[in-house]
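Quick one:
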Amino acid sequence: MSPDSTTSPSPHCATSSRSATSLSPRSVTSPGSATSWRSRAGAAAESGLSCYRLCGTSSFVCRWPPWGPPGNTSYELVLCYVRPRRCQRYPAGGRAALALPLRSVYVLTNATAWVEARGAARPRHGANLTLYLHEAVKLQPPALGSSWGKAGGRLRLRLPRPRCHEGPRPLQREARYRRPGEHTWTRVPCESERVENSEEEAVSCTLRARAALELQLRHKPPHWSSYWSEWSESLAMPEELVESPVARYELGRLGADGQRVLRLAWQPPRTEQGPVTYTLRARMLPCRCAQPPAQERLLLLDAAAAGHNVTLSGAAYDVALTATNAAGPGPAWHLHVPPEPAAGSARCRGHWGGMRMRSRPPCAGAELGGEGVRAAGGAVTVPWEAAHAGLAYCFEKQPLAAAPRQDECVRRQFPARSLHVETGLLAEQGCYRLAVHGWAQERGWATFVLTHRYVGNASLAASLRVDAGADSAVLHWEPSPRAACPGALHGYLICYGHEGHNLSQLEAAASARRYVLRGLRPGTVYRVGVREVPAEPGAACAARWRFLTKAQGSGRGPRRAPDLRYLGVLAALPALAALCRLGKERAARRLWPPLPRPRGTEALHFPPADAAQGWCRGGFVQPSEHCSRAELLLPQPAAEPGSPGGSRRQEEPEPGKPGLQRRLLHVEEAAAPQSGGDVAAAPGTL
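Output:
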């Protein structure tokens, strides 16, 4: 029924004689206009009046704040309906609350309610409240329970759907929270959605806080006449786990029982994170097994645990440690445990680390049950003996240079000390890790066989080189591909001898790349051969290469011609420098010819200091009028030898004596006939 329905109420919604109690309406009126009662729904907030039906009850409760001193004010509640157009009055006396039976009111129509008060002062009329009584429901506070979690500041939980709410729309919910020690609440809306085939609703609230919180929740039906429930009980939420556990590890070596121990230790959580439990998961990587057996081992540890020892086989493992508190799980700490190597024995230690650990330093273990393993071509045969009884096993054939792959588990019960043989085909050439792991209910996974084999043809024929001397020879060869396969190469076998004699055999280490043969005869032809000594028996050594030692006197080793390259370079450097200098000078003379030098010529000739122009030196007692700058003369250049008048030598006047001008004029008169009879007065003459 919609809120604005005008259908007449059902018989149980009308007043009846059985409901005529002290809470029955005192009078019933028929107002002239229904619109005079209507008001906005927000009037309830102004007057404080609220009328609702608690979920699971058969009566309405109306409450309002007191308007006067207790005992001096009487109240009366008025309800007016749209259909039928009538009003009901319910006296409440001096109480500020009133309970109305369900059969005494009309619930399937809109109603307007208000409160009137009478006392010593004048009568008072409260604000109107419009509501649809059938939907005016107030639910019980939600029960949060334990099915909740928080990650990234977002709360997620599931709440049961109340019995009073049967509509398709989910409830409206609101949360408020505060940090420890605070008094102010922060309200946030929540989102709800119905869960299919379930009586629960999924609720999510964005809190925007990862610290420890105190949280409360309330809800209401989606109808506009409904009321918010009271706040739920406080829920203490610890701080979220945003970091992985800080852990360290220590990995032991593989024992004779085919197992090794991984010792883990981690730091305890902080107090703000609350009680924390740990989940330890160890998954064996090379085998893919159905349940049971499981290649994954799951352990749940309590909050007091600060470490744990995990028993592992010799295979590779992925270990994950996850911490969980009341807010939910945090990020996991991961550790990749490499498979047990094939030679030696050592113990690898871990270090403090975060979510990603640095690579573990290389460690060495010990081969286990590798006797009798054969690898010919692409076929491999692995015999193994069960150290104890079990229910399933896994034959691992892992190529070291290729991507990791998984082998299937075989569910077959086997007794202790039983003998078995596993065969397989290895298509790719390279180094393989061959292992057999068995599983028992009490012990878990254990390794029965662990070895490495190289599959493929590897020959040293193309890489052998011989440097022969008079009484010795040096053998060089490239490393064998088997050398990179742990335990697949035991060493090298060298056989040699001269023509017509038996061969001698020598052994070299697997890491050797050269070998020196000593005590050879000069000028003799020898045969030599180098063969790999693999883990499995192979063919005999064959001397297929021949070399000739040097004759006697040619040196104890192969003679080498003097290398004159360095001497030629040293001699060519000075010659090259000289050629460059000569070429540079010649090019300079061609491109930039030298200019004539004035030195040693008469192009620039300065007269003596006494005949210099621009300066007049007077005697100590000579009058100043005899020395004037205006009377200075330019001296004429000397006549060329052999020219007319050139034999006459000009007299040089002494400085500071009179008669300087007469002598200069005398020289000019003597030179006048030589200039064609034209006499030109020198500037500055009298």
